[in-house]
Write a structure and sequence with these properties.
Helix content: 25-40%
Order of helices and strands: EHEEHEHHEEHEEHEEEHEEHEEHH
Structural class: alpha/beta
Number of helices: 10
Radius of gyration: 19 Å
Strand content: 15-25%
Number of strands: 15
Bound molecules: uridine-5'-diphosphate
Length: about 325
């Protein structure tokens, strides 16, 4: 069988990718400690509840199966918390991945797609961002992702372990059939918060309206989670057919401002969004937009869904699951 291990596969991007991998004919085994993931999100798949820090359990998974590749999502991913608890981030993201790579090496598994981030670039001076930009993360989250990318480079040199590190821009949206979507314990992302304000009659903060952008608010490259999932399948196939290791941007190459997202949410939902302009959020660069030409060249991938699909699919998910995967109140 084409068995793929997916650490963190019960999380947001992971669960959408598991569906895409299964559709592409891969046999998916999910390894997730459910700290952020949801059993419900992968109920049709094999889920092993386990932590990357539990090396014994992890290595057993490799001993019991013939795994041909790993698609790795298991990581802490909140910039703000990483600033307060950097050691937690290093332990979970770097030591956890060290365990995973050790288990892979011992089991002679050579292919890994590692979920990385545009936070590896830090405060860029120009945009769009391509992969040749200098990587100078400005928070521990980005540092831990970059540390793993570097560890992978040396694992390739020493053990012939090949990798693709997709560097995501702003993942958003949900499965169009409404079955899975975004549900974080602590929600800090703009689109879910905008929809929550509609559903719970709250007010969303716009973090700064005096940036040097077209309307003063920050611009980000929002990319549909199903486009990301498709890119992971392509990255895995690329490795299986002997593609060489690389880090690669995944974005739409189009930016939307915070005010534009609010407007798009009003259009998708037919409701008014209450907002208030607030202080800038520390560490937010004004504009982050991807140059995704390398993904097109190497993986034959480009985003096919735009902001309208992102906002419609996210709205369907949040409207029908106001408490995420928890039962309705
Ligand atoms: N943002 C905002 N209000 C919020 C949450 C986010 O104005 O309640 C802004 C944030 O400052 C950034 C953009 O929305 O410019 C996207 O933020 P998000 O946290 O979704 O993703 P990030 O770009 O930080 O990964």
């Amino acid at each position: 069988m084409n068995t793929i291990l997916i650490p963190g596969g019960a999380g947001y991007i992971g669960s959408h990718t598991v569906r895409a991998l299964a559709e592409a004919g891969f046999d998916c085994v999910i390894y997730d400690n459910l700290s952020e993931g949801h059993r419900e999100a992968v109920k049709d798949f094999e889920l092993i509840e386990g932590d990357l820090l539990d090396y014994e359990k992890l290595s057993q998974v490799f001993k019991n199966r013939k795994i041909i590749g790993v698609v790795h999502f298991a990581a802490f991913a909140l910039v703000g918390i990483s600033m307060k608890e950097p050691l937690d981030y290093y332990r979970n993201n770097v030591i956890g991945t060290h365990n995973l790579l050790t288990a892979m090496r011992n089991a002679e598994v050579k292919n890994i797609v590692f979920s990385s981030t545009c936070a590896t670039y830090g405060n860029v001076k120009t945009t769009p961002i391509n992969e040749s930009f200098i990587t100078e993360p400005c928070n521990p989250y980005g540092e831990t992702k970059l540390a793993v990318e570097k560890m992978l480079k040396w694992c390739d040199t020493a053990y012939g372990m090949r990798y693709v590190c997709p560097r995501y821009f702003n993942a958003a949206g949900a499965m169009p059939d409404g079955s899975i979507g975004e549900d974080h314990k602590l929600e800090t992302h703009l689109i879910p918060l905008v929809y929550r304000t509609i559903l719970k009659d709250e007010t969303v903060s716009v973090f700064g309206n005096d940036y040097p952008t077209r309307d003063g608010s920050c611009i980000r490259d929002y990319i549909h989670v199903c486009d990301l999932a498709d890119a992971h399948v392509r990255a895995l196939k690329y490795l299986i057919s002997d593609g060489s290791s690389m880090s690669v941007n995944l974005g739409t190459e189009h930016g939307a401002s915070v005010f534009e997202i609010i407007k798009a949410a009003e259009q998708a939902s037919g409701k008014t969004v209450k907002y208030a302009v607030a202080q800038r959020r520390a560490g937010d660069p004004p504009i982050l937009v991807a140059d995704a030409s390398l993904a097109k060249e190497k993986l034959g991938w480009s985003a096919v869904r735009g902001l309208t699909e992102i906002m419609n699919d996210a709205w369907q998910w949040h409207k029908n699951h106001p408490n995420g995967y928890e039962p309705y109140e």
